[in-house]
Amino acid sequence: MRLSRFFMPTIKETPSEAQIVSHRLMLRAGMIRQSSAGIYSWLPLGLRVLRKIEQIVREEQDAIGAQEMLMPTIQPADLWRKSERYDAYGPEMLRITDRHDRDMLYGPTNEEQVTEIFADAAKSYRDLPKMLYHIQWKFRDEVRPRFGVMRGREFFMKDAYSFDLDFEGAKRSYNKQFVAYLKTFKRMGLTAIPMKADSGPIGGDMSHEFVILADTGESEVGCHRDLLENEWLNTIDLEGDLQVVVDSFTDKYAATDDERDLDIEGSLGDDLVVARGIEVGHIFFFGTKYSKAFNAVVTGPGGDEITAEMGSYGIGVSRLVGGIIEASHDDDGIIWPESVAPFKVGLINLKVGDDECDKACEDLYRQLQDAGIEVLLDDRDARAGAKFADMDLIGLPWQVVIGPKAVEAGVVEFKNRASGDRQEISAEAAIAQLTA
Ligand code: 5CA
Fold it and tell me: Which domain, by its residues, includes 136?
């Protein structure tokens, strides 16, 4: 992509409406624009990141056998009357009336919709287990939408739903999602801690929020220090036995706001970390709440009737864009982990219009593209300082700078955004490093 053509409206000044760093940087980098409170447009740069995150989530869901589908954003109210959630959900639900005066709503989540579909189709115990998911926009009319995409009203969520024959099966599905979440967040460069969360009316211990620590987190959490330490984390083989992996995490104390236990915290001493957290995912077992309401019942091997045991598993895909920035930035801007970066490398032409510089940049640009590297070429006729500032702001993992002196010396300046390390190397060596 050429920056001269790319729609990336960066802002130099700090937007006054943004209270936290991720919101400020997303606005300044030209990733999003607010439409109304808690509702955003995703501009090309932001959308590239959103899609990368979405794709990692998708791959890890597919890897545990969950099947992707796509349910609508608009749902009929009658669906929610069946589960008795239409009234219970309250003012957070955006209620709409269609031209025939039928009550509709913009879905805040999809338990009802997916259970209705599943109930209609599943007949025999052979139809289970099943895990279905979609990645779709949701709407919740939050009282206090804030912090940009972190607490939006319209937001992008992955929600998965499991259907099993018995509790043991449901637990296996839960464990699969638990480990898939660990892998998903790790791939994004995040340390997301599974924390015991409120399990609602069902009780039990099968409700976890996945939380990343950040000063700007919305709630206070407490956990064992090990859960944050690479040294300990690296001892766990995520490909190992599911229950063993899950237990190795849940054996360590980690609790969200409401679930904190001050006695345990007191006994942890120096091993206790109390910090603020951002909830990026939530997994939940809820038994037969919805399968009963929608009659998701199958015939068992002996002709008996079995009501599906269900769980649901959410990831805040759009919230993650902000969450990753909260976890990875400096005074100059964003520092994207490679896996979610909008482009892998930014190529800066310091002297647009200079034949030698133009040629060196065009050559390298083409070679990188041919090698399948996502590259953003700054070919704008602008001051060097502005180019450096924009490139640091948008946080691409690598920068290649080409100016007249470098061209003459037959080198490029190759910079790592995270460490700030610079090397003068040949264009070939830069390509080799970027394709390694
Ligand atoms: N039905 C369940 C699981 S599929 C559910 O909706 N769970 S949730 O309410 O916890 O939402 C799942 C994830 O969506 C949360 O962990 C959070 O990361 C994200 N999320 C929730 N509300 C918002 C919001 N207002 N803005 C951005 N992300 C949100």
Answer: 21-334
